């Protein structure tokens, strides 16, 4: 009897061991000796990767480009940090945004807009409603000069006007390998850095951006010293689409001269007439001043800018923007905006002064050997504009450090009238 029980115990024990071994084979959580299998798996995976890479090389498309084309997430840190559901809204893999600043070239390679919902409670500080939108910009900064350059990358999306914008951020939702690692130092000569910046928008802000014609601003401030003395102060202004509808609209839109009416979103423009190939140059003591072209536009001030135009009442308005360039081959410094300008119409019937508040120019000081540009702007009532058929630009005298230069002489250009 005892032998029979002992034999039965051995059989039961053996069966249990077999069952346990069977479970061990299919369990993913229990450790096992898979050295040979892992080596084989690694070799198989390597062969698969090589095949996939060869296929991608054949069609000339990178992993990142294919991922974006199929709607994949460009920035995984958003889901990781928010714990939310992430949906791709729009991806632009060729935004044509590049700003060159005295040796430092800043380029937006691509950007992606995602909607995030059902976030963790810890995201409440960034998104009080625990939902919203994140725009990730993939950026490259390259120092093409032969010296170290100091710059703090900053970007903003402009909405109503230059005072209404969304600034980029670097604290939230950026993967470790996409953080700019300068540690307060400069961009060394010849160096190139790739990094991310993000923009956080609530639902209302995204609706607003979608309904306007937003601008992407690359902020300036490049210098060759830690104190940023004499830094490059020209910002870069670019169209910024957040959906396909805006892309289509921009593709057929008129390329307006970049006065502040345009860059600061002060007014909407409708083209009346343009001539962009005038290219007439006059000079004073080797200071060359060129009228490149003109645009006549009907303008409608935006809601936030109407107060600036109160002197015109409720009248319809026309703006004349004159694109000019300057090449200072003289031996004196001239201020970029230092040449006063006036418009004489219909042989002195009327004279208008330029509107400096809506003009852009660069640089502030045009030293010998330097080149610059300016948009000269005149604004008048449309009802009077329709009576004018002859326009003459008078510009100068030109202001320098010691007063007016070039013996206080002025330049005169006949401008084409709308046909």
pLDDT averaged over residues = 85
- Taken in chain order, the helices and strands follow as HHHHEEEEEEEHEEHHEEEEEEEEEEHEEE
- Strand content bin: 35-45%
The rough form would be described as globular
Sheet with most strands:
6 strands, antiparallel
Radius of gyration of CA atoms, rounded to a whole number: 32 Å
Architecture of the largest domain in CATH? Sandwich
Which structural class do you get from the secondary structure elements?
A: alpha+beta
For the record, the count of structural domains works out to 2
Number of helices: 8
Q: Report the top-level CATH class of the largest domain.
A: Mainly Beta
Give the low-pLDDT segments. Answer: 1-62, 65-70
Count of beta strands: 22
Measure the end-to-end span: 121 Å
CATH-assigned fold name of the largest domain? Immunoglobulin-like
Region (Disordered): 24-70
Biased composition (Basic and acidic residues): 24-43
Signal peptide: 1-22
Protein name: DUF5068 domain-containing protein
Can you give a write-up of this model?
By secondary structure, the protein is α+β, with helices and mostly antiparallel strands. The chain folds into 2 domains: 72-253, Immunoglobulin-like (Sandwich), CATH 2.60.40.4170; 257-419, Sandwich (Immunoglobulin-like). 21% of the residues lie in helices and 36% in strands. The chain has 8 helices and 22 strands. The strands form 5 sheets. Strands 10, 11, 12, 13, 17 and 19 form a 6-stranded antiparallel sheet that branches. Strands 1, 2, 3, 4 and 7 form a 5-stranded antiparallel sheet that branches. A hairpin with a 6-residue loop joins strand 5 and strand 6. The longest helix has 25 residues, at 2-26. It is globular, with a radius of gyration of 32 Å. The chain starts with a helix and ends with a strand. Residues 1-62 and 65-70 have low confidence and may be disordered. This is DUF5068 domain-containing protein. Residues 44-66 have a biased composition (Acidic residues). It comes from Cerasibacillus quisquiliarum.
């Amino acid at each position: 009897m005892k032998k029979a029980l002992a034999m039965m115990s051995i059989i039961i024990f053996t069966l249990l061991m077999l069952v346990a071994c069977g479970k061990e084979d299919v369990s993913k959580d229990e450790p096992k000796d898979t050295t040979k299998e892992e080596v084989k798996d690694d070799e198989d995976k390597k062969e698969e990767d090589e095949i996939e890479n060869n296929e991608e090389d054949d069609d000339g498309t990178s992993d990142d480009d294919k991922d974006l084309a199929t709607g994949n997430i460009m920035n995984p840190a958003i889901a990781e940090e928010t714990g939310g559901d992430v949906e791709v809204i729009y991806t632009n893999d060729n935004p044509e945004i590049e700003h060159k600043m005295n040796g430092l070239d800043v380029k937006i390679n691509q950007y992606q807009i995602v909607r995030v919902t059902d976030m963790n409670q810890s995201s409440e500080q960034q998104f009080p409603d625990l939902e919203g939108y994140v725009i990730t910009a993939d950026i490259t900064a390259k120092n093409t000069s032969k010296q170290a350059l100091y710059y703090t990358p900053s970007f903003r999306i402009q909405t109503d006007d230059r005072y209404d914008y969304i600034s980029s951020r670097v604290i939230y939702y950026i993967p470790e390998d996409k953080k700019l690692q300068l540690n307060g130092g400069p961009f060394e000569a010849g160096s190139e850095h790739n990094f991310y910046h993000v923009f956080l928008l609530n639902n209302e802000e995204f609706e607003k951006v979608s309904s306007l014609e937003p601008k992407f601003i690359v902020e300036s401030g490049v210098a060759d010293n830690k104190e940023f003395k004499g830094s490059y102060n020209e910002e870069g202004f670019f169209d910024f689409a957040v959906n396909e509808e805006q892309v289509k609209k921009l593709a057929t839109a008129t390329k307006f001269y970049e006065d502040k009416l345009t860059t600061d979103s002060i007014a909407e423009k409708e083209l009346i007439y343009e001539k962009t190939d005038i290219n007439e140059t006059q000079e004073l003591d080797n200071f060359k001043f060129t009228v490149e072209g003109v645009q006549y536009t009907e303008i409608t001030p935006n809601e936030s800018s109407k107060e600036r135009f109160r002197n015109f009442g409720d009248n319809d308005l026309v703006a004349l923007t004159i694109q000019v360039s300057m090449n200072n081959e003289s031996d004196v410094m001239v201020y970029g905006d230092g040449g006063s300008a006036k418009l004489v119409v219909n042989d002195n019937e009327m004279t208008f002064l330029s509107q400096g508040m809506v003009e852009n120019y660069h640089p502030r000081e045009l030293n010998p050997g330097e080149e610059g540009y300016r948009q000269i702007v005149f604004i008048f009532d449309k009802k009077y504009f329709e009576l004018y058929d002859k326009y003459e630009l008078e510009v100068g005298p030109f202001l320098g450090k010691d007063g007016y230069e070039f013996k206080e002489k002025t330049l005169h250009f006949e401008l084409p009238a709308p046909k």
